[in-house]
Amino acid sequence: MAKNVFKDFLNRKKHIIYNIEFWKTLGLLSKKNNYATEATFETKPCKLYRLEDAPSTSVTLNKEDALRMYTRMHTIRRLETSIGSLYKEKIVRGFCHLYSGQEAVAVGIKEAMRPHDAVITAYRAHGWTYLMGVEPLGVLAELCGRQSGCARGKGGSMHMYTDNFYGGNGIVGAQVPLGAGIALALKYKGTDGVCIALYGDGAANQGQVFEAYNMAKLWDLPCIFVCENNGYGMGTSAERASAEVNFYQRGMYVPGLWVDGMDVLAVKECFKYAINYAASGKGPLVIEAATYRYSGHSMSDPGTSYRTRDEIQEVRQTRDPITSFKEKIISTELVTADEIKKIDGEIRTTIDDATKKAKADKEIGLDELCADVYSINLEPKIRNIDPFTPLVHKRIGPAVNFK
Amino acid sequence: MATVKSLTLFGVANKATFARSFSTSKALSAKPMTVRDALNSAMDEEMERDERVFLMGEEVAQYDGAYKVSRGLWKKYGDKRVIDTPITEMGFAGIATGAAMAGLRPICEFMTFNFAMQAIDHIINSAAKTFYMSAGRVNVPIVFRGPNGAAAGVAAQHSQCYGAWYAHCPGLKVVSPYNSEDCKGLLKAAIRDPDPVVFLENEILYGVQYPMSDEALSKDFVLPIGKAKIEKPGKHITLVAHSKAVETSLEAAKELAGKGIECEVINLRSLRPLDIDTITKSVTKTNHLLSVEQGWPTCGIGAEILAQIMESEAFFHLDQPALRITGADVPMPYAKSLEIAAIPQPKDVVAAVKKLLKVK
Ligand SMILES: Cc1ncc(C[n+]2csc(CCOP(=O)(O)OP(=O)(O)O)c2C)c(N)n1
Ligand SMILES: [Mg+2]
Question: Coiled-coil ranges per the record (chain B) (predicted)?
Answer without folding.
Answer: none
